[in-house]
Every structure is written in C-alpha cells, then in structure tokens.
Amino acid sequence: MRSLAVDEAAWGSAWRGRSPGDKLLLCAGLVGCALVLPAWPGSVLVGMAAVGLALGPARVPARTFGRAIRWPMAFIAIGALTAVVSVGDGGLGWAPDAAQRAGSLVGHALAGSAAVLLLATTTPMSDLLPALRRLRVPEAVVEVAGVTYRLLFVLLDSLHTIREAQTARMGWSSPRRSYHSAGLLAAGVLTRSWDRARRLQEGLAGRGMETGLRVLPEVLPSSRAFLATAVTGLAGIVAVSVVVA
C-alpha cells in the first residue's frame, strides 16, 4: 500500500507525542491571525512562525514541507491573477490597485496554508479524528473525513499498480503513447477505486456496520507549557501587527 509523504512526516514528527488539541489550538490561532490581521506584517509573521515551527521544533523535513506547499502556491497564484484583472469597455486590464490586492491575497493565503500544513505534517489523522469528535464536530463530517482519508490510499495504490503495468508495456515511451496512457490511467484508477469502495461499503453493511467504527484512541496529555507558549506567541503576532499597521 502506498503512503503519503505528509502522513509519513506527521508520524515521524517530533510533535507526534503532543496532544492534538494543543496543536489544533496553535494552528487555528495562526489561521485566524492570517485571515484577520493585515498582510503586512501579520501574514508575514504567521507564515514565518508556521514554517519555523515546522522545520525547527517539529523537525518536519524541509523537502516534504516544500513539496506539500507547491500545489497551494499554484492555486494561490492563479487566484491572485484573476483577482487583479479587470474587465471593462476597453477589454481586459489591470485593476488600479492590482499590486496591493495581489500582495494582500497572496500573503493571507500563503500564511493560512502554511499554518494548515503545520497541523497536517505534525498530526496524523488517527489522532486528529478523535480530537474532532471530542470537540463536538458533527459525526457526519468526521466520518466523511475518515472515509476520504482512507480512499486516498486506495487511489494511490491503484495509480501505482496501473502505472507500473503501463511502464512495463512501454506505454510512456513517446508523447502520443503517454497521452493515451494518461487517459487510460485516469479511467482505470477511477473505476477500480469506485469498485473497491463499493465492495467495502457492501462488506461493512453485511456485518451490520450502520454506524462508525469505534476504536480506542491513544490519549496524549495536554501540555500547559506548550499552550502558554502558543498563546503568548499568538498574542505577540497580534500586538506587533497592530503596532506596525
């Protein structure tokens, strides 16, 4: 079974033994600061704090964190481009405050994404889902998140198996064959994953599994020192942003 680099980083993180509630508080506070505070210096401070904590105390591999943030950066760049373009009688053009608007959008989005990735690379889903239940998150939301997480590994396993078979048959040896193989790969992954998900659902239904599968979660104690440091750091970011802005 294939694995996710972010999931492996979370299991190997130095913060693996910390309470998921503590990390949720810290990362939720960083996301809130990224959304509410001005892009300068609030978002910059949030982004620096999130990256610094991930690569420093949490000891997340820099390569993994950098690869994980690439796709959010691509979506942010596209969103920033569409936000600064104006459509008028003369056709397409740049908005009058294009630079300021793009900078604000990119700053808020990158800082928030870095804070979310800090949580993702330090907290495995097996710790996060029970924490969400304890926080009274609706059961349907938690179940959907758990099922989606499990199906990601089904997709990766199907993708790897089909691509290996195509490579053995020289399916990626030329641009034309690569284009054809890419279409077959997408179709094969979707159909195989759908079939495996259907069989999983039928198997659980046949065993009377009409509710979620309950397991005994690992209890990780909360740290007052960590919480105090997190609250102090968040307060410092807010204070510096207010003073500078």
From TrEMBL:
Family matches, as InterPro entries: ABC/ECF_trnsptr_transmembrane, Cobalt_transport_CbiQ, ECF_CbiQ
Keywords, sorted A to Z: Cell membrane, Membrane, Transmembrane, Transmembrane helix
A cellular-component GO term for this protein: ATP-binding cassette (ABC) transporter complex
Subcellular location field: Cell membrane
One Pfam family in the UniProt entry: CbiQ
Membrane topology category: Multi-pass membrane protein
Keyword Cell membrane in record: yes
Principal location: membrane
Positions of transmembrane segments: 24-51, 71-95, 102-120, 225-244
Gene Ontology BP term (one): cobalt ion transport
Protein name: Cobalt/nickel transport system permease protein
Organism whose genome encodes this protein: Blastococcus xanthinilyticus
